[in-house]
Amino acid sequence: MGAAAEGLTTDDGRRTLAPPGRRRVTVLARQQFGAYAVLRVADPGGPPPRPGQFAMLAAVERWGGGDGERPFLPRAFSVLRARPGELEFLLEDVGPGTNRLAELEPGDGLWVLGPLGIGFGVAASELAGRRALLVGGGVGIAPLAILQDELTASGAGATVLLGFRDGLHSAGAALLRETRIATDDGSHGHEGLVTDLLAEELDRDPAAVVYACGPPPMLEAVRVLCAEREVPAQLALESGMACGFGACFGCVVPTRDGYVRLCLDGPVLDADRLDSALTPGAGH
Ligand SMILES: Cc1cc2nc3c(=O)[nH]c(=O)nc-3n(C[C@H](O)[C@H](O)[C@H](O)COP(=O)(O)OP(=O)(O)OC[C@H]3O[C@@H](n4cnc5c(N)ncnc54)[C@H](O)[C@@H]3O)c2cc1C
Ligand code: FES
User: Fold this and answer.
1) Where in the sequence is the domain holding 212, given as residue range(s)?
2) Residue 148 and residue 177 in contact, taking contact as beta carbons nearer than 8 Å
């Protein structure tokens, strides 16, 4: 196996470096989980991503040329799951880019640039004997699946708390194992917010490290709950991304030590770097 397939990973283990340029991969399958589609692609030359890293995706055919030429730019997607030579992505159809990607069929071509960004830190020093609490909201469950796979493989294990708006969306929970679920409408699991479950878990045992991804109000509630209890947390944020590799400055977010480009210095940031997870420009 060559260096490209093995991947060059930074010393802290949070970033696998992407090969230069986008590469063409082939869709192997598309499967529906309620409101979400999972795209599985063959990626024989791609390096293994770290949990929390993302890729910029664009369909090879019929990308652009719709109303107002949309979708024009590639779109950012967290890696849902990685197996040798394969990647999976989770999509919610919310606009022209996700709409086109959710139509892809086996055999179709997909441009992939990645893995990009800095992922979750799961080194023993980061866990420091604490249990991992994974908290996901909506399509933000995506990077938690690959994270759960890694924690399980390392023997660390994880408690997984997932929140969805309704039963159609909660079908996405099948992508992770041994989950506690909250839905806004009570159609599945706890009726209420996933942060209710997080507060319960932290009250029961605050010796945890929290890993979270979801809409900004959820991330902000996670940040506040963890800050109050001095529980370390890592938050996978979103912002509008045009390039994904630091060139356009479209993704900047404020931190306590200045603005950072989320595509390079994130998307995972330690919560104690933020005054708020309600970053401008972010957010479903
Ligand atoms: C690092 C990162 C990882 C992501 N991972 C996933 C993923 O795993 N699955 C997934 O479905 N989506 C993910 N997204 C969001 C995804 O890139 C957007 O859904 C996509 O850009 C929407 O494109 P569109 O053309 O379908 O819709 P658009 O017309 O571009 O947007 C439709 C709606 O979504 C909002 N929106 C668009 N982009 C974003 C964004 N980046 N953040 C918040 N709101 C946005 C818009 O304000 C609008 O309301 C991720 C974004 C980032 C930055
Ligand atoms: S998306 Fe272009 S700099 Fe981050």
Assistant:
1) 124-273
2) yes
Q: Is there a single domain that holds both residue 146 and residue 247?
A: yes
For a mutational test of ligand 2's pocket, the pick from 116, 251, 279, i.e. the residue with the most ligand atoms closer than 8 A to its C-beta, is 251
Q: Which residues line ligand 2 (CB under 6 A)?
A: 241-244, 246-251, 261, 263
Shared domain for 103 and 213, answered yes or no, is no
Q: What is the CATH number of the domain that holds 184?
A: 3.40.50.80
Ligand 2 pocket test target in 54, 238, 241, 260 with most atoms within 8 Å of CB: 241
State the sign of the Cα–Cα–Cα–Cα dihedral 147, 152, 156, 160.
positive
Q: Is 103 helix (H, G, I), strand (E, B) or coil?
A: coil
Point out the ligand 2 atom lying closest to the alpha carbon of residue 248.
2
What is the tens place of the pLDDT at every residue in 113-158? 999 999 999 988 888 889 999 999 999 999 999 999 999 999 998 9
Specify the 3-state DSSP secondary structure of 238: coil
pTM assigned to the model = 0.94
